[in-house]
Design goal:
about 475 residues
Amino acid sequence: MVRTLGLTQLTMIGVGAIIGAGIFSLAAAVAKDVAGPAVLISFLVAGAASLCAAFAYAEFAGMVPKAGSSYTYCAAVLGEVVGWIVGWDLLLEYTAIVAVVAIGMSGYLGFLLDAVGIHLPTWALGAPGTGTGTGHRIDLLAVAICLAVAWLLTRGTRTSARVETVLTIVKIAIVLVVIAVGFAKVDTGNLSPFAPFGVGGAFTGAATVFFAVFGYDALSTAAEESVEAREKLPKAMMLSLGISMALYVLVCIVLTGMQHYTELNPNSGISSAFASVGLNGLANVIAVGAVIGIVTVTFSFMMGASRLWYALSRDGLMPAWFGAIHPRRRVPHRATWIIGIVSAVLAGVLPINSVAELTNIGVLLAFMVVCASVLILRYRKPHLKRAFRCPGMPVVPVLGMVFSGWLMSFLQWETWVRLGAWLVVGLVIYAAYGYRRTRQVMPGGSVDLDALDALADTEEPGPHIGQAPGR
């Protein structure tokens, strides 16, 4: 792959991954059903948990500039089997995230289409069993956006990253307009009671909105397409999370201050809140921003999923056919199209809540393992060159593990069963194919961190993980 991404583009990819369905859809849904105005606390708790993990990711990104993200990090410290489990887990989660945010987009697109007098047929408005009425068969708009983003990503990294940067800047500008105009319309009476569902409701909301406060992990999959990855990736991670959390906090205050939490629309929360105070024109502009925002999230995570699949295939854990690089555009085009098609199917026929919870538990599991890995490696190999060092060792990584495990405990038992079933399938694939094949591709079956440390100074991908130079 070609190194074309600088700090600005990396930060925009990170912000694009974090700011999207969470700010435009999940905030209203959680406030209405789970937390009330205390959704602000939900985001702060989730953000604190995410920050602990972000520090761990940043240390690894500054040390191991490889495309596999947490798969590579965990394999480097805890071994190939653990790395494969995390990679297999995240392959599903990233694809599910693309589906979730595409579903979230359809509510705002419906808002816009209704505003201009265009009404889609009932069968195309959502997955079976969704909505207040009957007749839903497929979320057609969500399907279309998944396939369109897959097409954009196969055009090449430079082209798609430029589009992502422009759209993210437009999205941030619209969010800033929401904050500036919305604060003038805040009625403090709407903020009382602040925690109608109790403190437990705010914490339960944190487990749900956690979906909205990660994205830097997908950013780290672009390491082999980044200029000066060891220096730029950690900075982009911290910048993207900081910008996003500031916007989340301000929007939560505006949202629950403009409209009482019991009246919020979970599908088009911010637009509906502005319409409720007579700002219908601005509500339509916000709906456009929501669609743009969700497109950028879809872009970032589909890019992350395809690069993860590329890394798994390159290292022999999955067939090389899937990770093939397009000879002219230099992107993993087959993996991108498969992920686009699978996410389109999920977005078209499944309700958003089930997919969102599955996404959260998988990413939280990966965060726990990454935090453990950075802690172990700091003491096992203190000599390795680190462009960024996780602060507060060992407290911060331990807090990251505790926070992640705690948030996982709030998820439904069915979600745990689905994750367990997926991981069992992954172990079967590893035993039947990956274990033997990877011995041919990367002898020793583990990441040579010392070799990577030397190779990283050249910013070249170098040999396969664990492979001797020149093989």
